[in-house]
Amino acid sequence: QVQLVESGGGLVQPGGSLRLSCATSRSIFSIYAMAWYRQAPGKQRELVARTTNSGSTNYADSVKGRFTISRDNAKNTVYLQMNSLKPEDTAVYYCNAVNVLRPQDDYWGQGTQVTVSS
């Protein structure tokens, strides 16, 4: 089992920044791909950013150049740095971990609310 705990959400004005954190219950980055998803009201959950166990990254087109996913192996934590935030970034953000060797080992955090509004 892997527990994921997100933090760092909140209310921010357009153009502002936030950094989300996802703390994992144990060291998993060597065999787990980590990702951030988001779900806005009335919309499907969508992938925002992913980092694989080898460290490669990919982003949704809507956040490229504004968001950065990173991880701190010593702290067992993955981050999402969000800059130049827009109202359309408002959503609940979820951390996800998938075992690349056993994809059925798929874990989610509880989510953290990000609201971008003036």
How would you concisely characterize the structure shown here?
The chain has no helices and 11 strands. By secondary structure, the chain is mostly beta strands.
Explain what you see.
Strands 2, 4, 5, 6, 9, 10 and 11 form a seven-stranded mixed beta sheet that branches. Strands 1-3-8-7 form a four-stranded antiparallel beta sheet, with no helix packed on it. The termini are far apart. Helices cover 0% and strands 51% of the residues. It is mainly beta and 118 residues long.
Structural features:
seven-stranded mixed β-sheet, 118 residues, 11 strands, mainly beta, 0% helix, 51% strand, four-stranded antiparallel β-sheet
Give the SSE map.
Blueprint lengths: L3 E4 L2 E3 L5 E7 L7 E8 L6 E6 L5 E3 L7 E6 L4 E6 L8 E9 L6 E3 L3 E5 L2
Parallel strand pairs: 2-11
Antiparallel strand pairs: 1-3, 3-8, 4-5, 4-9, 5-6, 7-8, 9-10, 9-11
